[in-house]
Specification:
A hairpin with a 5-residue loop joins strand 7 and strand 8. About 0% of the residues have low confidence. The protein has about 450 residues and is an alpha/beta fold.
Length: about 450
């Protein structure tokens, strides 16, 4: 999903919380307004500060109910569908409030506030979506949020889709190229086109394409991190994660490389920020102690910044406690002949002369990776994900390994808790790809718990 479009979708929740508070405040002051009091005198005592405390709790609860009702599902929906979800969600949580307040006469006696809160919340939350929809359409007209697409196919459905993309700007799609059939020559031409210009989506509508060519096309999209979609008649194509939508009455299937998309990505990021911030605070004593020992052991900085490849092939600097002598990177080339790993692009040497005395300890205890929390907080890494590899290692990846770059690398992952450095590279890659294709928040929690157990038992430290 386009990052700017995702921002418009995810900003709905904090805006909803703000306007739920505003709705409650409006309801409270409306109840005490003279125009209402003259017809319905106030016969209860509810100080504003007490009401505000209740309102904050109710608003958080309301967000939970709205989420369950599907209000924050980032799947593209028409505006009237979003507004109906808002109406249903607001009605459900207000109904729950009425039932809850029924058992507390003090609050239930103010049912006017509850009912007006329901009305205000529907109005304000609907207005938020109307305004965001207007902003989205304005941005589309200015060329933002537009997905650049390549269509492969020459049947009636292909031409109907291309015509609809050109006619309906609200779809946010611009057709860059149209190939009549799918063959190996088209895959090669498409790869050249991708290298020369920006492509977001490849849509296959050729229902008679050769399966071998389809697999080549899917692999190309995975390697280049491009969304792959196809017409629904190609149901024999292998799918792990998919989404189905319709355009101009034609079913379109999108194959996702990972379920980590939309709000799932937002929740994972919130989880990362919260735990990394907490970790950075409680680990301060460890930073000071380890830093002191590193300084006493050898000359050089306490932290090192190592080049690593992250999501979508982006290079970033990974923070670690220095466990090697100064200039260790320049010595690696001379030590390659002693590499004990011949199963892939990684380097490992049991008695690496570059590792310091303190370095051996902090590696064995996995303490050297604690500063990775800085990268997690900055958004360059995640707590859980595939292992982050060096640029020269990624250059040696085979095509199937490039899927490892679909999401952010992690401090820990399935490979680390399933054998750690004892695993061969292919086994490690297979586990990380399984994680990418089967991600869930619960899976992250399980891996983090297993990581703690592995570190405490000092099993096969990296």
């Amino acid at each position: 999903m386009n990052k700017n479009k995702l921002f418009l979708e995810t900003i709905e929740a904090p805006l909803d919380f703000l306007f739920l508070i505003i709705s409650g405040i409006c309801s409270y002051y409306l109840r005490f307004a003279q125009i209402v009091v003259q017809y319905r005198p106030v016969i209860f005592d509810l100080p504003f500060m007490l009401f505000l405390k209740i309102l904050v709790g109710v608003s958080f609860f309301s967000l939970f109910i709205l989420a369950i009702s599907g209000v924050y599902n980032v799947k593209k929906r028409k505006l009237h569908e979003k507004l109906s979800k808002v109406f249903v969600g607001c009605s459900i949580f207000v109904l729950i409030l009425v039932v809850a307040f029924f058992f507390n006469q003090r609050f239930f006696s103010s049912r006017f506030i509850v009912l007006s809160f329901w009305a205000f919340s529907i109005i304000f939350l609907s207005l938020i979506r109307i305004v965001l929809d207007i902003i989205y359409r304005i941005m589309l007209s200015k060329g933002y949020f537009v997905s650049r697409i390549v269509v492969i196919g020459s049947d009636d459905n292909s031409y109907r889709l291309i015509s609809e993309f050109k006619r309906n700007r609200g779809l946010g799609v611009k057709v860059i190229e149209n190939y009549d059939i799918l063959d190996n020559d088209v895959v090669d031409r498409l790869e050249k086109l991708i290298n020369e210009t920006s492509i977001d989506v490849v849509l296959l509508t050729d229902t008679h394409s050769d399966k071998h060519c389809i697999n080549n096309l899917i692999n190309l999209c995975n390697i280049k991190h491009i969304t792959y979609k196809y017409s629904a008649s190609l149901l024999d194509t292998k799918m792990i994660n998919f989404d189905i939508s319709t355009i101009s009455g034609i079913p379109i299937v999108e194959i996702k490389s990972t379920p980590l998309d939309g709000w799932a990505r937002v929740w994972k990021r919130i989880f990362d920020i919260a735990l990394s911030f907490f970790g950075l605070i409680i680990m301060i004593p460890i930073y000071l102690i380890v830093g002191l020992f590193i300084k006493l052991d050898t000359r050089g900085s306490v932290l090192v910044k190592l080049s690593r490849i992250g999501a979508r092939n982006k290079t970033f600097k990974m923070y670690k406690f220095r466990s090697m002598i100064v200039g260790a990177d320049r010595m690696k080339k001379d030590l390659m002949q002693y590499n004990e790993r011949n199963d892939g692009p990684l380097f490992k040497m049991q008695d690496d002369p570059r590792i310091t005395r303190v370095g051996k300890f902090i590696r064995r205890a996995s303490i050297d990776e604690i500063p990775n929390l800085i990268n997690v907080f900055k958004g360059e890494m995640s707590l859980v994900g595939p292992r982050a590899h060096e640029p020269n290692e990624v250059e040696k990846y085979e095509d199937g390994h490039l899927k490892l770059l679909a999401i952010k690398p992690g401090i820990t992952g399935m490979a680390q808790v399933s054998g750690r450095s004892d695993l061969k590279f292919e086994e490690e890659a297979r586990l990380d790809i399984y994680y990418i294709e089967n991600w869930s928040m619960w899976l992250d929690i399980i891996i983090l718990i297993k990581t703690i157990r592995v570190v405490l038992t000092r099993k096969s430290a990296v």
